[in-house]
Structures are given as C-alpha cells and as structure tokens.
C-alpha cells in the first residue's frame, strides 16, 4: 500500500475512534451529575420528573402572567417560542412582534396543550440522554457500583405446574437450569460482565455493573417466556367495553386488577390490552374477553427473530413452531378464520390480529417497539425458565473497591504508563518519541473499540490494557533493535528501517497471534471478570499490532523518504 493510502487509513481510524469516543468523553466530562442521575433512573422516574417539572413551570408562568402579562418570556423557556410560533401560523393568526409571556401562552389552544408541550420537552431531553448514555463506555461493578438483585425460586408455582409436590433436590436442579438460561439471556441483552451465582439451593444473586436500566433488567428477569395465543370473544368484548364505560367504578378491584363482571361466563377471562406510552412504559389502553383455553402455548416456539415489516416499517417478531405446535396452530387458525387472535405475554395482551388464513409453523407478530421486539425474541429464544423466579430484593450497590482504591489504581496506572514513556524517550531518543506517540494512539483506539461495542471497563479490563501496553512496547523494542542491527552493518537509514520492520514482522506476529488465541479461549470459556480481561486483551493485541507495524512504519517512512533524514537517532551509541 502506498504511503498516501496508509495515511488515509490512519486518518480514517482516528476519525472513527473519535466518533465512538465522543459519547464517553461527553458523558463523563461534560454531562452534569444531576442529569446523569436522572437519565440513569427508571422510565417511571423520568415520567414523574418530566410531569413534575412541567407542572412547576406551568405554575410559574401562570403566576408571572397574572402579575405582569407584558413581561418578556424568561430565557429558560425560550424553547417554547418556536412551538408557539408554529401554532400561531397553523391557526392563521398573526405572529406577535414580541414574545411576552401572555403572547406565548396564547399560542396554545388550552392549558393542557401547554402542559403537554412542557412535558414533552423534558421527556425527550432525558430519554435522548438515556440513549446517549448507552453509547458511552460503562464502568464495572468494582469501579462504579451497580444493581444487586436477589431472585427466589417460586416453589409453590413449580408444584402447581407439575401438579405434584417436589423435593428440595428437584428445586435445586431447576434453579441451576435457571442460572444457565439467565447467563445466556443476560449476555444477549447486552448487560455486560454480570455476576450470577447461586445463594443456597433456591436463590440466585445477580450483580450488574453500572446504572443498569431497571426496566431492561426486569424484562429478562421477569420475562419467563410465558406466551400464549387466545381467541377473542368479540361479542363479550363489546359488552364488556360498554359495561366499563357506563360503570367506571366497577372496572377495577381494590388491588388495581380488572374486575370480571357477573355476565362473563365460565371459560372466559378478562385481560387488559397494553401498549407502550411516550416513555416506553406499558400502559393499559383497553381490555378484551378471551377464551380461557390456550390456543397455542409458547413452549412450541423453537426460534424467534426480529425483522421489519416491509410495508409499515414497524418491528415484527417472527416465530418458528415445532412440528406439534405447527399442527396445533394450523387447526386453531383454520377453525377460527376471520376471528381475532390475541397474543398474551405475562398476562398482558401485547398484540391482536385477525386470522385471515390458516397458518402452520411460521408466525409473525407486530405491535411492539424495537426494544420490546428484540427483548421478547431473546426471552423466547433462550427458553422459558424451568422454575419461576421472584425478585426477593433489588437494590443499588456501591463500588466494591471504594473510591480510594480506585483512585490509587488509576494513579498506579498513570505512573507506570508515564515511566514507560520516559524510558522509551530516554533510551531510543527520537525513535522513542515515535513509540510513545503510537502507544498513546493505541490506548485511544482501545478505548474507542470498548465504547463501540458497549463493553464494560473493570479492574480486570484495566489489567488487560496494562498487559497490552507492555506488549505494544515490546513490539517497538523488537523493531528498533532490528533497525539498530541493520544500521550497524552500514546500511542507509531508509534501508535499515525497511529491513528492520520486515525482519521483525513475523516475530511480532507469532507472539501476538498465540496470545490472541489464548484471549479468545478465555473469552469463550470465561465469565465475569475473566471474560472482561480476555476481551480487552484481544482488542489490545489487534490495536497494538496495527500501531506498531502500520502507524510506526508510516512515520519512519515519512521522515526517511520525505524529510530525507540520513542519520537515525535511535540510540545513544548510534548517531
């Protein structure tokens, strides 16, 4: 590859690294701590905050307009001007020359519209920040704390499911199987480097690093894969809706569950219809009467994938049924053509569709957000839990090492890295300066890759980075010593550089490939901290070879061929 081509590659790598590093740098360096705490909270907490702030702002503006309606709109509410201006234009009214508080509030049809605009502003800002945080490099449990969740096996539910009593050994075996399934689920959900371990024989302790999203965590913990297809009773559903509308006090029981009216006969059940609201939280939007008999149980699903509807562009979940499930579903759909089919997950109707034709083994569902579709597919693909798990305790935990230990660890890393840089600079002079430059570049690229793949940084990951720094320095030492040998033989600077890199190439490749293989094995077989160490080491090996063999070569060729340096200052004994 020509020098220009290599330069373009290096610049492209730097640009990509900067792109992936931007969220990490912005999140940890520029986002206020208060905003971080709000963005890392649950969606329910964000909802409460957005509504509270909107109500507070509305009260403040109402008080201001009462005292002085001609006062100019305070700068902190400037975001409302554009929306008010659009509302004036949409209603064919003249746009005010000045934006007083009264003029701004008159730009909305009513007080509720004004409140909704304020709430949307706070909601979108925090939800966007929540998504932004997901692109930043996450710190591990030992560095930043996280969530601790204790799961308890539901023995009573297990016995009801098997219709017999079970022994402690059977419960322990089922819990062990649950642990294996959860390990698979939690990795696929992107909750990196979790710690899952048994507590006794009937409990599982889950520790997730970072400020994990509670909804996303609960979706894999509580999502037991309980999916069932039921036929909708249209006549009773219409009667039920009319009954609830005329008797709102009769809709819910004291515990908030839907009340079943007396006219609902045996063999029918009342189930709520749910859809995500603007915050992504499941909200009841209706109710339907279903045949209690399960048309098809989710246990017959053998594969679940997500896709996008080519017409509507909405996310879909595609299920593949086993042979017996295909026969059951074909019989169900062929005998209930033109009737509605409800998809019930965890006692909530998540989607409804009219059966237009008989379906045998391939099923497609829609009505989900992108995240919901992905989560549902993962839960079902990794199978239902043998024994149901209830959350016995869930709490936030602090960094296990403590702030002092973390500070000391970072200080030790900084000192070690500084000493390596000083040694290379003193021992190899100008060439050492090149080595130091590519070493810093190596760390930048490693951090960018960790950020790009949403990997979690723990102390074991930092150990992998330190080992990578050592190996990167070792590669430069091998190259420089080969160049010195060639230069001592009387070769020119250009010939020495070329021969040094060529002869050191396979030595460096052999050493790094064997280490890379070991890192891959650890990444596949290890868990938790071991896996984090292996992932970081594997990434570091690739980046160190790139910087040592590609970037360093480009820098040396530039000075030797373009700047026309005739003498190499690569040692105190060689000038």
Notable characteristics:
alpha+beta, Multidrug efflux transporter AcrB transmembrane fold, 575 residues, Alpha-Beta Plaits, 57% helix, 15 strands, four-stranded antiparallel beta sheet, globular, 16% strand, 17 helices
Q: Main beta sheet, described?
A: 4 strands, antiparallel
Q: Which structural class is indicated by helix and strand composition? A: alpha+beta
Main-sheet strand order equals 3-4-2-14
Q: What are the low-pLDDT stretches, counting only 5+ consecutive residues below 50?
A: none
So what's the overall shape?
globular
CATH superfamily of the largest domain: Multidrug efflux transporter AcrB transmembrane domain
The value of Rg in angstroms is 31 Å
From the 3D coordinates, which CATH architecture of the largest domain would you assign?
Up-down Bundle
Distance between the termini: 30 Å
Quote the average pLDDT: 82
Count of helical segments?
Answer: 17
How many beta-strand runs? 15
- State which percent range the strand residues make up: 15-25%
- Name of the top-level CATH class of the largest domain: Mainly Alpha
Polypeptide structure, described:
- With 575 residues, the chain is α+β, with helices and mostly antiparallel strands.
- The protein has four domains: 3-22 and 403-562, Multidrug efflux transporter AcrB transmembrane fold (Up-down Bundle), CATH 1.20.1640; 31-133, no CATH class; 138-223 and 393-397, Alpha-Beta Plaits (2-Layer Sandwich), CATH 3.30.70; 227-382, Gyrase A, domain 2, CATH 3.30.1360.200.
- The chain is built from 17 helices and 15 strands.
- It has helices at residues 3-29, 33-39, 43-67, 79-90, 101-105, 111-133, 141-144, 155-162, 168-188, 214-221, 234-246, 323-335, 370-381, 402-452, 459-488, 493-525, 528-562, and strands at residues 138-139, 146-153, 195-199, 203-209, 227-231, 268-276, 282-291, 296-297, 301-308, 315-321, 340-345, 348-354, 362-366, 389-397, 456-457.
- A four-stranded antiparallel beta sheet has the order 3-4-2-14. A four-stranded antiparallel beta sheet has the order 8-5-11-12. Strands 9-10-13 form a three-stranded antiparallel beta sheet.
- Helix 15 runs parallel beside helix 17 and helix 16 (493-525) packs antiparallel against helix 17 (528-562).
- It is globular and about 100 Å long.
- The two termini are 30 Å apart.
- The model has no long low-confidence stretch (mean pLDDT 82).
């Amino acid at each position: 590859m020509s020098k220009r081509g290599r330069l373009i590659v290096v610049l492209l790598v730097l640009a990509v690294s900067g792109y992936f590093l931007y969220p990490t740098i912005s999140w940890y360096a520029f986002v206020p701590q208060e905003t971080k705490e709000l963005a890392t909270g649950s969606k329910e907490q964000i909802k409460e905050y957005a509504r509270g702030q909107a109500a507070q702002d509305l009260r403040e503006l109402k008080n201001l307009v009462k005292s002085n309606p001609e006062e100019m709109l305070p700068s902190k509410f400037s975001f409302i001007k554009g929306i008010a201006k659009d509302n004036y234009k949409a209603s064919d009214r003249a746009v005010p020359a000045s934006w007083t508080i009264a003029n701004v509030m008159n730009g909305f049809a009513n007080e509720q519209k004004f409140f909704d605009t304020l709430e949307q502003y706070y909601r979108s800002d925090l939800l966007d920040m929540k998504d932004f945080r997901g692109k930043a490099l996450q710190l591990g449990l030992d560095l930043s704390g996280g969530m601790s969740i204790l799961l308890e096996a539901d023995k009573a539910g297990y016995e009801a499911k098997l219709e017999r009593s079970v022994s402690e050994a059977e419960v322990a075996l089922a819990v062990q199987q649950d642990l294996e399934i959860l390990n698979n689920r939690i990795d696929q959900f992107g909750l990196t480097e979790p710690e899952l371990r048994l507590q006794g024989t009937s409990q599982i302790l889950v520790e997730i690093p970072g400020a994990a999203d509670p909804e996303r965590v609960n979706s894999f913990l509580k999502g037991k894969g309980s999916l069932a297809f039921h036929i909708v009773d249209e006549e009773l559903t219409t009667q039920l809706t009319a009954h609830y509308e005329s008797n709102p006090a009769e809709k819910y029981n004291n515990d908030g569950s839907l009340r079943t009216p007396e006219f609902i006969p045996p063999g029918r059940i009342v189930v709520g219809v749910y859809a995500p609201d603007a915050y992504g939280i499941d909200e009841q939007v209706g109710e339907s009467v279903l045949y209690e008999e399960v048309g098809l149980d989710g246990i017959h699903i053998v594969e679940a994938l997500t896709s996008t509807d080519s017409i509507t562009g909405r996310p879909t979940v595609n299920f593949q049924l086993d042979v017996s499930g295909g026969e059951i579903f074909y019989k169900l759909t062929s005998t209930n053509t033109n009737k509605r089919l409800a998809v019930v997950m965890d006692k909530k109707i998540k989607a409804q569709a009219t059966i237009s034709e008989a379906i045998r083994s391939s099923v497609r569902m829609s009505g989900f957000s992108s995240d919901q579709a992905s989560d549902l597919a993962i839960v079902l693909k990794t199978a239902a839990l043998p024994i149901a798990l209830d959350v016995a305790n869930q709490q936030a935990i602090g960094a296990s090492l403590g702030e002092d230990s973390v500070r000391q660890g970072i200080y030790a890393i900084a000192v070690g890295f500084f000493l390596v840089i000083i040694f290379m600079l003193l021992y190899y002079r100008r060439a050492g300066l090149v080595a130091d430059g590519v070493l810093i570049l190596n760390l930048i690229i490693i951090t960018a890759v960790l950020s790009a793949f949403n990997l979690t940084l723990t102390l074991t990951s930092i150990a992998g980075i330190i080992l990578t720094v050592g190996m990167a320095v070792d590669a430069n030492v091998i190259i420089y010593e080969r160049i010195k040998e060639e230069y001592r033989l009387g070769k020119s600077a250009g010939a020495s550089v070329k021969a040094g890199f060529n002869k050191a190439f396979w030595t460096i490749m052999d050493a790094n490939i064997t280490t890379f293989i070991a890192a891959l094995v650890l990444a596949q077989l290890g868990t938790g901290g071991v896996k984090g160490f292996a992932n970081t080491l594997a990434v570091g090996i690739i980046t160190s070879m790139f910087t040592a063999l590609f970037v360093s070569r480009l820098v040396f060729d530039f000075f030797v061929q373009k700047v026309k340096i005739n003498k190499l200052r690569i040692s105190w004994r060689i000038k």
